[in-house]
Design brief:
The structure is a homodimer.
Chain A lengths: L15 H15 L11 H8 L3 H13 L3 E4 L3 E4 L26 E2 L12 H13 L14 H15 L8 E4 L2 H11 L5 E6 L3 H9 L3 E8 L2 E2 L1 H6 L4 E4 L13 H12 L5 E5 L24 E6 L11 E4 L2 H11 L8 H12 L2 H25 L5 E3 L6 E5 L5 H10 L2 E2 L1 E2 L13 E5 L5 H14 L2
Parallel strand pairs in A: 3-14, 5-6, 5-8, 8-9, 9-10
Antiparallel strand pairs in A: 1-2, 4-11, 6-7, 10-11, 12-13, 13-16, 15-16
Helix pairs in contact in A: 1-3, 2-3, 4-11, 5-11, 6-7, 12-14
Amino acid sequence: MPDSFPLPVFTEDAPLYDQLYRHIAAAIQSGTLSPGSKLPSKRRLCALAGVSMSTVETAYSLLAAEGYVLAKPRSGYVCADLLPPAPAAPASVPEAAPVPTPKWAYDCSTSAVDTSAFPFSSWARITKEAVYENPGLLQRGSPQGDAPLRTALAELLAQYRGVRCSPEQVVVGAGADYLLSLLLQLLPEQKAIALEDPGYPAAYAAASLHGREAVPIPVDSEGMCPEALEKSAAGLAYVVPSHQFPMGVTMPAGRRSRLLHWAASAPNRWLIEDDYDSEFRYSSRPIPALQGLDRAGRVVYMGTFSRSIAPAIRVAYMILPPELLERYRATFSHGACTVSRFEQESLRRFLAQGLYGRHLRRTGNLYRKKCALFAGALEEIPGVTVSGADAGLHFLVTLPRFSEGELVARAAAKSVGIHPLSRYCHAVEAKPSTMVLGFAGLTETELGKAAALLKEAWT
Amino acid sequence: MPDSFPLPVFTEDAPLYDQLYRHIAAAIQSGTLSPGSKLPSKRRLCALAGVSMSTVETAYSLLAAEGYVLAKPRSGYVCADLLPPAPAAPASVPEAAPVPTPKWAYDCSTSAVDTSAFPFSSWARITKEAVYENPGLLQRGSPQGDAPLRTALAELLAQYRGVRCSPEQVVVGAGADYLLSLLLQLLPEQKAIALEDPGYPAAYAAASLHGREAVPIPVDSEGMCPEALEKSAAGLAYVVPSHQFPMGVTMPAGRRSRLLHWAASAPNRWLIEDDYDSEFRYSSRPIPALQGLDRAGRVVYMGTFSRSIAPAIRVAYMILPPELLERYRATFSHGACTVSRFEQESLRRFLAQGLYGRHLRRTGNLYRKKCALFAGALEEIPGVTVSGADAGLHFLVTLPRFSEGELVARAAAKSVGIHPLSRYCHAVEAKPSTMVLGFAGLTETELGKAAALLKEAWT
């Protein structure tokens, strides 16, 4: 037994055996007690440390159980050969993420929604009922999402969007980005993905994260250009036909037919139809989804409640055509749905009790007013053209008198935050002097003030 | 104007303009009205169809807006050239997913948990409060999860698991499988991933879905074998040190040191520590996490509430070392967290109000009793050895008298469902005649009956 055995000083409030155990473990890890050296006998340590036999026995058995010491017959406990601790990394305590300080007095980004109309008391009541009345929901559910919610979604989409599907084709997941990632995992053979240019940044990010080539396809006044798609090597195309992001154009029937024809005219071609904000149209009725026109089973329809209810509600869905549904079941049948079953049940009740329809009407009216107010005020600025304002939660403003950079800088000088169109462009040149303005997150009063400031900035 | 213009029959309850619009759109899509053919003048159609001018005007403007017809100067409306509808796919209405009928009277699978102790009334109250008291949570939150929950998790893990991290390193996501997928997207350079063999099937599935090579590393009585890991080409190793799945072994300190040394001794090496059921230990205290011993910043710690609370609660977390946190922020800073912010806030309250600790004590006692009862009853069967029963929600049973297939078949004949160990094996031979038995989802009475049936089956 080494005379130099480092005796503990018992100071803490913790049990003595635990302090003794941690003291010896630390000495072994640091090398103070070298590999192969013997620990004092239990009796000896009792005397040295002034603790009871049971304290020593407990500490030694913990050390043995965790591999710090080995029990050798007739020689007691021997320190294990722990490799020296790995070299310390350069001291790098992670910095706190930059707190998103509001940089602008008026932020016209496109990701916010109006939550003033959110029915808090109904949602709170529903979530409580969903927990109370459904103890069975605690266990693991279907990876596709629970059947009652999928049935409600299939009915909703048939009624409002002309989507034709059975509840079996619905896959529920925690957000559209998550579902897009899932879909790319289902389609490993798709090495090149056609994306709208300008287009939704998260779709470009998803392609890159899954190691696929993003093929930018120009967008014209009718949406994705079919000539460029047909010439490309892509077998998978991601389109937003009902209100393209960010251009705001709606794809007419002829273009839709042509895209469907492209998808059906060779094997292993697929269209992803992202219908992210189709709930809000102001100047005409919603145009039925591409999916409803698809006779060849080539369209994956995607939608989300993050705009029509709130970004905090992480529920999105996709409708898989039969061939992809088979693949999905073969691949993901053992997983769990990423949406809490209580939240699925809350949403189902929200739909079934007519609260969703009422909420859509209220927010639709709010957005219609906001859109008209903001677009109308901006159109009073000499030279301004507004486009894409007949649907969704954003529109475009073009003012040729200034360059894109000047428009952003002049707005910023008045503390109005806006994104230039070029931010969403990849291979194409952005339409000059054009801004993308979201209006959903600002109140009517704020929109009036923001428009007045932009008028000062841009005249 | 063609004389053959197909007149609509107005029968439905829908507005006349809508019936007229859909009638003509369908005729154009089906080819009954050929491309380039002219529609009747508005006045003519009024007379023919017996409807008002405004009905015809609305229908025609919808058709024009959606691209079915083109307005030609001085010749009225002309049908657009829609490509013929794509060929119909072979009739393939998706079959309903097979309803998971209970195949066994007693199902000893490893995925169920005991939900009898779930505090429904507290959880219902908390979820309601979380909605009512936090209107701000409707807007988009941090992609990593909200700071108050991350702070609570960092404290919980420091206290119970010896994890050392700042709240900034915590990433919250909808399930461990989702977070593993995210991590693989962050580590595209890792082409080969070392996985425990036998091991967790979802980890093998994740590697395959992300196009990586799964490198099976044998598991011995101390967990993943370091010799095989060191010889492999893998730079990323996925380990379950606290209660290996399915072998149930706990990795001792020496083995932990050696794995940390492996990770620290070359650049771009990482350990994923999955601590999925560390909350439940019966015969000794929990062993601190590998992450807490890591001086080189090479360990990603992962945990989940799907076992400690319920599978329905889709909240998991990972602790990123500083270098991966930087990558994460560069890659995912624009996304949204996959867990609803209301659910994040509910969980934070559940932790802060001491309800989680109480729930763990209650379920820990339940599982301890169930484990002892079931393992004890099975050990009475002549020749049976139980292993891995000092932690978690499953253990292993070995009975050399029968082959693996015989053990499964004889249990099935008594309507007891069990999984053979070979189900989790890849390159290694399974330990012969060994079963993996979960006990969490059955009541004590059911466990007693299942054990009696297995005794009949196996003697």
